[in-house]
Fold:
Amino acid sequence: MEPATARDTEDDVAATIAGLESQTSWLYLGGEQGKRIQAIVNQAQGHNVFAVFRAWHAYLEEHLVFPFEAMVEEYQRGPVRPDH
Structure:
């Protein structure tokens, strides 16, 4: 065997890792919820965080009707109170 010449640069490796992470980053939630979120963010045009936010925003605008009822299941700091 002889050593091969590297074909990929460090930038190529970093770009590949970023692409893979962006396609699997929501699967940690487990189950169907993580799979559904991942399917939505995989539609993003690009692999940067702003493209993912735009895809998520577009999905929410299309599927949510405001105002909507929600239940707070665990304590949250901020403007949402459990009695609202």
